[in-house]
Request: fold
Amino acid sequence: MTISNQALAGLLCLSLGCSGASAQQPSVAAQSIVEIVPVGTAGGPPIQVDRSEPATLIRVNDQFYLFDCGIGTVRRLARAGIPTTKIKALFFTHQHPDHNMDLAALLSDRLFGLGLGRPAVPLEVYGPPGTQRLVDAAAHFVDAAFETFAAEGWGKNVERPIYTAREFGSGIIYEDANIKVYSAENSHYSLMKDDDQRKFKAYSFKVVSPNGQVLLTGDTGPDSSLSEFGKNVDLIVSEVLNPGAMRVLLDHMLHGTPAEHDLPGLLDHMTREHLDPAEVGKMATKANAGSVLLTHFGPENVSGGTDVLREAVKSHYSGEFFLAQDLQVYCLIGGQGASRAHVTLCRSSYAK
Reply:
């Protein structure tokens, strides 16, 4: 399912007050299609029933780019009717299991799709240090699982797809005809020991598209440099966590278990290496962001917690913001003249 150029023109004119004549201008009709799809909106690692783990898809015209790949991502892509063989590039913000565990499923589905004759674009996987090891391990896992197919004569002539892993630091990490992707190290690992901080890295991304700019925070703690990195972006896709509710949840989960002694460290991680809604609002205001899309909801937000998030963000940010649901489709529509790009919820679901 796609949004037509005519629909894009209509959405733009609704926001800018175009006349009937101006709605037909070629500059509007020729706009690129830029869609942001929160494929998975649940923080993990605990599995949630109604939300998949973190993954965000950005579509630019007929190209698809995936950011993180938590458990449930491949099933959500299937639900949306997007073959995994169409994913051109995958970007990992950091290496935590709720952000990368569906990589093996993605590689498996691509391999099976090739066996069925689906055309496939080469897959490039971008991530922090450790990404090459992750891709190699996932590919070996998939090959081991497919050995029985080969023994039965299926897939012997299927050429194994090429998975290119590219590890990066801060700066521009990707560019093609549709997008540029910039990375900046954030504070998600700030509590690690110094030696571990040199080994493990967590990043935020800025994606520059034909219609505007998107900041994906990934998992991060409050970080003043993030607002500067995302200065004047049209959309911030931000994680969010309710620390008070998380404290109650963790205390309930760990009480009386061997892991109870880990509670202080976990709470420190949740409050200092993640963003609460007030911090999201402050960051968005400081960055002069056009809109905010909240994602990465913890179990504490599934029932009755969203009102708290809304009020906390609104107390520090006056712009438009959305609370994501899996497979919603947000359109980034480029501005005309001096007006800036804007974001609209253009479809309630990408699902077929």
Observations:
- The mean pLDDT is 85.
- The chain has twelve helices and 15 strands.
- The domain at 32-347 is CATH 3.60.15.10 (Metallo-beta-lactamase; Chain A).
